[in-house]
Amino acid sequence: MKFIITVDTEGDNQWQYNGRLTLRNLRALPRFQRLCEQYGFAPTYLLAREVLQDATTVKALLDWQKRGSAEIGVHLEPWTTPPFMAEETENPAMQAFPSELPLEWFSRKLEVLTAEVAERFGAPKSFRAARWGVSGDMLRRLAELGYGVDCSVTPKIDWRRQRGLAGGPGGPDFREAPPGPYRPSVENVCRSGGAGLLEVPLTVLHTGPLVREGSMAARRFALLPESPAKRLLDRIVFRTKWLRISPASRRGDWRAIHRAAARSGLEVLEFMIHSSELAPGTSPLTPTERDAEGVFRRLEEMFGDFRALGVTGCTLSEIA
Questions:
Q1: How do residues 175-197 score in pLDDT, each as one tens digit?
Q2: Cβ–Cβ contacts within 10 Å for residue 81, how many?
Q3: Residue 133 falls inside a structural domain
Q4: Residue 219 domain flag
Q5: Residue 238 resides in a domain
Q6: Pairing of the two strands 204-206 and 2-9
Q7: Total-model pTM
Q8: Long-range CB contacts (within 8 A, 24+) of 280-289
Q9: pLDDT at position 270, please?
Q10: Would 122 be classed as within a structural domain?
Q11: At 277, phi and psi to the nearest 5?
Q12: What's the pLDDT tens digit per position in 264-284?
């Protein structure tokens, strides 16, 4: 089984963005990189545009890339990537899903960010949309620009109630997406087709011992509307878990996810973390030094458990 570590590498406290950026969290990246290397894993850093302004971080990332210890990809945040639409200029705090943007505007932003990353690191091959906001037309444009893999899909999750662009449709609905890598369709990113690149979804699995991914029960459960009854059923039977770290994470979660993947024949696990979660005071999840230390403790537990289970690491483009 393969294990992919992805890092949305971005400014501090993005959910409180008001047009002003700080980058204190980036000072925690060397410690994170050392931990990954200690366990033989090479992370994929997906860079938001603001990170490119930090010369110290760019130098470190380039060194890790040259050593083959990391991959550098792209993380497009509409609110920090020019050119900006009038709505974005008038309301800097608005955080549109990339999938809400007119394709022309997304394409122009993507071209700017791709060129700036390529200038420093070579042509990027991996991509993740901010807020998981990806569409079929976006995937086709990514393929046209030479990207080989996207990792913006979160299986089982419906983001339509989350708002971004004023008057926009909200985020995508990924409830029917496969749990493992596939080649998506332009018409429906949750289905196989000819978009021209590989989709590697974030690992979101049912860990209940009686549930198998892709079963009729799992598909029907995913399509149920959100309700207290659905949450209760999930807690008792389906036990859905993301391969993420949160204050509610427990060490047994990693082995439960591995068992669920093995039971369903999945060969790839993809983990995701925001760089801001690695430092105190730069994310709502890590307001204190103790919280940030807790993240590193859980990372070490996860990496150790996966190594003990025989999982091997790879980067996003290596899986493509």
A1: 999 999 999 999 999 999 999 99
A2: 23
A3: yes
A4: no
A5: no
A6: unpaired
A7: 0.96
A8: 281/12, 281/24, 282/12, 282/13, 282/22, 282/24, 282/25, 283/12, 283/13, 283/25, 284/13, 284/15, 285/246, 285/247
A9: 99
A10: yes
A11: -80, -5
A12: 999 999 999 999 999 999 999
186, 139 Cβ separation under 8 angstroms = yes
Q: Is the dihedral of CA 45, 154, 280, 94 positive or negative?
A: positive
> What are residue 211's phi and psi, to 5 degrees?
-115, 135
CATH number at residue 178: 3.20.20.510
Q: List, as own/partner pairs, every contact residues 114-119 make where C-beta atoms lie below 8 angstroms and the sequence separation is at least 24, other chains included.
A: 114/74, 114/145, 116/49, 116/52, 117/47, 117/52, 117/72, 117/73, 117/74
Q: What is the pLDDT of residue 165?
A: 86
pLDDT digits (tens, 9 = 90+) for 64-83: 999 999 999 999 999 999 99
Domain count, the chain: 1
Sorted by sequence, the CB contacts under 8 Å of residue 314 that are 6+ apart come out as 2, 3, 4, 42
The Cβ of residue 140 has, within 10 Å, a number of other Cβ atoms equal to 16
The one-letter amino acid code at 70 reads A
- The amino acid sitting at 252 is G
The range of the structural domain enclosing residue 44 comes to 2-206+243-319
Q: Show the low-confidence residues of the chain (pLDDT under 50).
A: none
Q: Is the CB of residue 32 less than 8 Å from the CB of residue 7?
A: yes
